[in-house]
Amino acid sequence: MTVKQPAGGAAGGSLRHRRRPVDAIVRVLLILAAAVSVVTTAGIVLSLIPPAIGFFQQVSAVEFLTGGSWT
After folding, report:
1. What's the gap between Cα 40 and its chain centre?
2. What's the CA gap between 53 and 59, in Å, rounded?
3. Chain mean pLDDT for the chain
């Protein structure tokens, strides 16, 4: 049994093997969105470090984790 292939070579070939420009644009947008989320998360964590240092200078980590009263 033989299977007929469409004529035309690469120009008339399947879209499965060719990348469309929209695919590249979407890929770039997704990478940018991921980068923004990583930078935002890092900024939040870094902005919490100075207050946490000040807090743990006043309250020990053991007291914080095991203490039963809120002040």
Report:
1. 10
2. 10
3. 86
- DSSP state, 71? -
Q: Residue 18: which of 6, 29, 9 has the closest Cα?
A: 9
pTM over 0.90: no
**3-class SS of residue 51:** helix
Q: Scanning the structure block, which residue is given the tokens 């940018």?
A: 32
Burial profile 9-20: b = 16 or more Cβ within 10 angstroms, e = fewer: eeeeeeeeeeee
At residue 68, does pLDDT exceed 70?
Answer: yes
User: What is the helix (H) or strand (E) element at residue 67, kind and residue range?
Assistant: none
Q: Judge whether 35 and 29 are in contact, CB under 8 Å.
A: no
The token pair that represents 50 in the structure block: 């100075």
